[in-house]
Specification:
213 residues; alpha/beta; 9 helices; 6 strands
Length: 213
């Protein structure tokens, strides 16, 4: 019997994936169109990985430049400035609000995000959705570690939880902890083409799926 649901945030609860993609493009626009293309391609292929790790990767691998602590902090703060209010105002994934309103009292719901901890908490508060969740978790903690903490901290067995995500980092976090995984499919079909898991286009039918597990 499912007692807890772990949700990724961007692209699973809220339609905010493109907001993050555009922010990365703007963050590196001064480096020229070829770098921007590589940045965007990498970001899209690694959704669910924290901006901290991506920025470090871009400097080391693409730009081959030293990334000072001061510059790193500047980039992270600018990224946050580019995305925060847009994510706060982004629409829910279809069925998301309705599911949380109807079922968050019956299931323990959690957010596991690659967004920095303070930022994801602020977003949830500003969207007036924090009340739906028993816990909200973000970077720098890995998603696998987050799921482990959720299970142990709430005395849940892996079979009592399900993870709803849209990236391989979400799938890996679920698999690492023996938790069943549901993939939200929206422009990421290729990522999960060879993955044996439940797949949904939005959250409108999630309650029915959970009832069958």
């Amino acid at each position: 019997m499912i007692k807890a649901i772990v949700f990724d945030f961007d692209g699973v609860l809220v339609e905010s994936v493109d907001i993050k993609t555009n922010a990365f493009a703007r963050l590196f626009e001064d480096e020229g169109p070829e770098i921007v293309k590589q940045v965007v391609d990498y970001h899209v292929r690694h959704t669910g990985v924290s901006r901290f790790d991506k920025i470090k990767y871009f400097y080391k691998t693409l730009l081959k430049k030293e990334l000072t602590e001061r510059r790193f902090k500047e980039l992270c703060e600018r990224f946050s400035g580019l995305v925060l209010e847009e994510v706060v105002n982004a629409p829910y994934v279809k069925g998301g609000r309705e599911f949380l309103e109807a079922y968050s009292a019956g299931y323990k719901c959690f957010i596991a995000s690659a967004t920095p901890q303070e930022e994801i908490e602020e977003i949830a508060q500003k969207r007036k959705m924090a009340r739906y969740f028993a816990g909200i978790y973000g970077a720098p903690k890995s998603k696998s570690a987050i799921v482990k903490d959720i299970l142990s901290g709430n005395r849940l067995s892996p079979g009592e939880a399900v993870y709803v995500g849209d990236a391989m980092s979400d799938y890996s976090a679920a698999k690492d902890n023996g938790v069943r995984f549901i993939a939200r499919i929206n422009g990421n079909t290729g990522i999960f083409a060879a993955v044996d898991c439940l797949k949904i286009n939005d959250l409108s039918g999630l309650s029915s799926i959970l009832g069958s597990l």
